[in-house]
Design brief:
Blueprint lengths: L9 E8 L2 E6 L19 E5 L4 H12 L5 E6 L2 H9 L4 E5 L12 E3 L10 E7 L6 H13 L7
Parallel strand pairs: 3-4, 3-5
Antiparallel strand pairs: 1-7, 2-5, 2-6
């Protein structure tokens, strides 16, 4: 899970980093700049995931801490839809860096170098607290910890 629900009786442990980054079409004026100030994004239009998604929850938490209010142009229900909209020049987005991995070699989207980003977050292994787990459920987290590094990009 990206954001384990606090209200559930669960145990959770971080598995792997899942940072949020700001992305833009490669044709965007900010695409070649470095050390972009957050305040410099105030007038930009953003494409975000829908309310209730893990990504949106993380963005809203970060907004309370350091982000200026975002000018949300469109809410979409998947990272793939957001990537396509960005490539089409519809705005910027804050999204998980791992969602960009399938874009290796893609020259339509670029991660912006924005001060204060990436927003650090993790994928978590979550299990029900106090429940007897099957052998597979007990073994699976160990398997993930052993093999997850193979899934990270170089």
């Amino acid at each position: 899970m990206g954001v384990p629900p606090a209200e559930l009786d669960i145990d959770s442990e971080p598995l792997i980093g899942n940072p949020l980054v700001i992305v833009a079409p490669t044709s965007h004026p900010l695409a070649k700049r470095s050390r972009i100030r957050l305040a410099g994004l105030a007038n930009q239009e953003f494409l975000l995931r829908e309310h209730g998604s893990d990504t949106r929850i993380a963005i809203e938490r970060a907004s309370g801490e350091k982000l200026t209010p975002l000018n949300v142009k469109i809410e979409l229900g998947s990272n793939e839809a957001i990537k396509q909209a960005i490539a089409g020049g519809l705005g910027l987005a804050i999204m998980p860096r791992h969602a960009l991995y399938p874009l290796a070699g893609n020259d339509q989207i670029v991660e912006l170098n924005v001060q204060g980003f990436p927003i650090k977050r993790h994928w978590y292994v979550v299990t029900p607290r106090g429940k007897q787990l099957s052998v597979v459920a007990q073994t699976f987290p160990d398997f993930l910890h052993t093999h997850i590094k193979l899934l990270e990009p170089a």
